[in-house]
Amino acid sequence: MIIKKSRKNIRKRSNKKSRRRLSRNSKRRINRRTKRRTKSRLNRRTKKFLKNKNIKGGNTEEETGEFSEPEVTINLNEKGQGSSYNRFKKSKPDQFIKKLIFKTNEGLILEPLFYNEIKNILKEKTPNLEELKFYNIYINYDENKNFLSHLKEINLKGLNLINYNRFLRDDYVTNLFSDISNFIQDNTTLTNLEIIGYRIDKILNESFKEALENNKTLTSLNLSNNNIEINNAVNIVRALKNNTTLTSLNLQSNNIKGFKRLSNELKNNSTLTNLNLSYNISRFPNKKNFIESIGDFLENLKLTKLNLSNNSMGQLGIQLFPEDFKNNNTLTSLNLESNGIGYEGAENIAQVLNINTTLTRLNLGYNNIRHDGAQYIANALKKNNAPLTSLSLENNKIGNDGAEKIAEALKTNITLKELDLYGNQIGNDGAKNIAEALEINTTLKELNLNDNQIEEQGVIYIANALKSNTTLEKVDITENPIDNIKESDCEAIAKSLNNKQNPDKLLILNYDISEKIFKKNLNKNCRGISS
Q1: Which residue has the higher pLDDT, 380 or 77?
Q2: Could you tell me where the DSSP H helices lie in 309-398?
Q3: 284 close to 317: Cβ distance less than 8 angstroms
Q4: Cβ(340)–Cβ(369) under 8 Å?
Q5: Which pTM was predicted?
Q6: Are 263 and 300 in contact (CB under 8 A)?
Q7: What does the CA dihedral 176, 179, 184, 187 come to, rounded to 10 degrees?
């Protein structure tokens, strides 16, 4: 009897625990549901706000099955079918569709029916189609030897082939590139070709290089994320040596370790203006050759955009930049993100800004320049020599001291329109200095203070500065520790946005804060962004 009684008590206690657990789970579900509803409500308000500002976001399909956007995405299943594809086939011809994207998430080889009918459907439904994109779609070359070649009749200007899901057999990629070669050979309309993620280095055939050499229309070529090594990179550039139309070349995320050879091959090119060589150099590159090759690029090419991000350059990699830029009068955009240049490298860049008269966009994010590097950059901004309109210093650990130096520069700078200070450990003191600068600055339009250490008082500093600032259009303060802001502070923030001279002013805060402001119906220009 004693044993039975104890078991009974155990069952009772167990039932109580399970009820408590169930109660806690119910509360969690209710909280999650409330949070989802809050976000959904804010999303609706955000979309309505953007709609009122005539800001478009994404493509839509009307209930009638007709597509009203210039860019349309069609998801396919393994049979080459799907609800959006069926609506597309049944829809009326749409002259507004310029770009069509066929997409599968799993990376499927589609059945022959799709390939047999797609060309006629495209010609019928999209008479003004300019660009065609295949995302994770693999062609069955056992059934369709020249699928892409058959699409020549559509007179496309752009073809994008993107693979992110699987490693492909060499024989498949060989067939694909033979098909691509036939497609671009003697093509008289194609201007943009993107082949991304196919790891083509070992099977890059001569027919593709010959097709590039003979093509007279390409203006943009993207071969990123293809594991191309230096020898094939040189062969591709050599095939483009006499090309007089190509203006943009993207070789991002390959395995090119010899920029010097590339610069020698591109020496006589007179049309290339946009070059992307990011994510290529190993951790310990040959600094001497690297430095010389960058100088050759700047001296021999008429580049306007150069992307060298994530190449482990270090301070040594840019030590000759001031000398290289002395005679350059074409470059307008330079990306040096994630190169570990440190504060010494920031000093070299500041010297460039002091002598350059063309650079308008500069990205120095993730370079650990700290407050000393921020001081060098700030001094250059004060002089207003370079016509810099966009500057990114994200994740550089500049702290409050660095923010103070940048703020001082903003008081006298007359060119900067976009400033990114994301993730820089800036607190209330730094926010106060920036706010004081915003009361004086008359050119800045966008400011990103996301993911710093700004608390409630710092937000109020920024909000009060917006009362007198008539040019700033967007301030992002999401991902800061400001979750416990008071209702009265929310009211002050909302009222500060009521600037009749700039009704489009937008302060982006965390969801819970924006919800408080929306409840008070004080100002529609304060909206939330999901974290």
Answers
A1: 380
A2: 314-317, 321-324, 342-355, 370-383
A3: no
A4: no
A5: 0.82
A6: yes
A7: -150
